[in-house]
Amino acid sequence: MSKTIAIGNKVIGDGYPCFIIAEIGINHNGSIQLAKKMIDIAITTGCDAVKFQKRTIDVVYTKEELAKERKSVFGETNGDLKRGLEFGVKEYKEIDKYCKEKGIIWFASCWDEGSVDFIEKFNPPCYKIASASLTDDNLLKHTKSKGKPIFLSTGMSTMKQIKHAISILGEDNIILMHCTSTYPSNADETNLRVIEKWKKQFNCPIGYSGHERGITPSVLAVAVGANAVERHITIDRTNWGSDQAASLETAGLYHMVRDIRQTPILLGDGKKIVYPREFPIIDKLRRIK
What we know:
The protein has helices spanning 32-44, 57-60, 63-67, 78-85, 89-102, 113-120, 137-144, 159-169, 193-201, 216-223, 250-267, 279-285; strands spanning 5-7, 10-12, 19-25, 49-54, 69-72, 75-77, 105-110, 127-129, 150-153, 174-179, 206-210, 228-232. α8 (159-169) links the parallel β9 and β10. The chain has an 8-stranded parallel β-sheet. The protein has a two-stranded antiparallel sheet with strand order 1-2. A two-stranded antiparallel ribbon has the order 5-6. The protein has a single domain (5-285), classed as Aldolase class I (TIM Barrel), CATH 3.20.20. It has 12 helices and 12 strands. The two termini are 41 Å apart. It is α/β, with parallel strands linked by helices.
C-alpha cells in the first residue's frame, strides 16, 4: 500500500476516497465573480478542492512572446491577455475568504518562484507543479522549501525527466499525477495503465490530471487505482480561452464526481457471494436448488 498524505482535513492514498480537484485555472477569464461561480459549482458537485494558476507574467514569458499580436477583451497583444487573466492580491484575498467561508480547500499551480512566495502568504495546504514546470529544478526546490504536499503533474515529460523531478522533491510528500498535455486529449493518448505501473514503482499516492472530452477516462483512472483526479471546469465550454474546450461544465462535473464516488462500491472486495436480494430470485427461477 502506498504512502498516504493529508491535505487539510482530507487524506489522499489507498483506502481513502478519491481526492477530486476542480481546476479553475484561468477559466475565470479575469472575473472574480466568475471564479466564485465555479467555486460554487465545485462545492455543489462534491469536489474536495479548487485550484488556480499563478504566474509572474514578465518572468514566465519573454518580451517577444508578450509583444505578439493577440486580440482579446484586454487589448491587442498576448501580454495584454496574460496580464488581464492574472489575479492579484485583492482577488486572491477574496478567493481565500470565500473558500474558507464555504469550507473548500483551494491552492494553485505556481509557475515561478515569486508566484510561490505570493501564494504562500495565504498559507495554502499544498501546491501543484504544472507539467510545463516539471523540468524547472529551481522552481521545484523553491516549492519544496515551503514544506507543503505537492501535486506533480507529468504531461509532456519522459520517465527520465519525471524521475529527476522526484529525486528533487522526494517521494515522501508528493502526489504523482499521470497526465497528457493535449487539450483535449484523444483516447489513444490517455494510457491509464501508467497509473497501475506507477503504483507499484513509487511510494507515493498516484493521481490523474485529465484533459479529455467527457468523463470516462477520469472514472476509469480511479478504477485502476488513482488516488486523486483533477479536471478543468468551466461555466460554458464555448467561452473564449485555451482551456475551455477540455473542461467540464456543471452537469459533466456532477456525473464525474458521482461515478468516481461509486467506483469503489462497484469494484467491491473481489469475493464472490450470493447476495440476500438474490434469494427470492433463486426460489423463483432455479429448478434445482
